[in-house]
Amino acid sequence: MTRPIQSMTGSAVHSHSAARFNLQIELKSVNSRFLDLSFKLADETRLLEPALRERLGAAFLRGKIECRLMVKHQAQAMAETSAGGDERLDARSLDALLALQAQVLARSPQTTPLSVADILRWPGVVPESEVPPGFEGAALQALDAAIIKLTQSRQTEGRSLASFVSERLDAIAELAAGLQARTPELLAAHEKRLTERLEASLGKAESLNQAIDVQETLARIRQEITLYGIKIDIAEEISRLESHLLECRAILKRPGPCGKRLDFMVQELNREANTLGSKSVAIGLSQTSVELKVLIEQIREQIQNLE
What we know:
This protein folds into three domains: 10-76 and 140-156, Ribosomal Protein S5, domain 2; 89-126, no CATH class; 158-303. Helix content is 64%, strand content 11%. The protein is built from nine helices and four strands. The protein has helices at 49-59, 75-82, 91-107, 116-121, 135-207, 214-232, 235-253, 259-282, 286-303; strands at 10-17, 21-30, 35-40, 63-73. A four-stranded mixed β-sheet has the order 1-2-4-3. β3, α1 (49-59) and β4 (63-73) form a beta-alpha-beta unit. α5 (135-207) packs antiparallel against α9 (286-303). It starts with 9 loop residues before the first strand and ends with a helix. The model is unreliable at 75-86 (pLDDT under 50).
């Protein structure tokens, strides 16, 4: 796959004019887990749906895409049809239907005659519309042009989303680095608090003429500092978080669809953020943890639109 990153949202319109008809193709695309194609076609153009579906399926891999094909016959062609005498009625079918009705009424006079609406709905009385010569080729060419426009629209939006995600990844890396940098500082502050408590206890013991085993107390302090250090150690989580960030950036730079892969990586980022959050609460950095989760959620919302 060599195609640039694409969003699943976009739209495109392309028109084509010919001697006997004008046609317009509209494409609208929104996000979807898979490729979901829907068509709005007139009855006379329904036979084109397989060809339209094949072209769209070859051009896009994900997204809910609606294809609307509108046809307008030129005024000259419509005038020629009206000048034919019976307009859109098939005279032979109409005569045959009226003859049959006359036979029925002759045998059963109480039978209600057909209304005008009944006659017009009778198969064959109003011939089905036929597409003009060259219409199919023109419609497929118009679709190809609309696909190009939609692809450009999706790529423009894709670049914007990729830039948005990259900015959030940088912000996450900055927050993670800040968390890691604070760990030695917090450990030193905790040690200082314990030392101050020890000094206060020693002073109080001396004033009361009580004996305190200083070596035993110092050992207890070292033990508490060690346990506290283990509790707030986030080096492993930060390492995994940085690895996930690198992979996300690599995915954004690779050609081809990336939405599903990024969605998986965001789950991994969120898992590490939850672990960091539990530890950051213990060391008084809950606000940083909240900011980290907000950034990850912003990424998750935006990558839902990436192909």
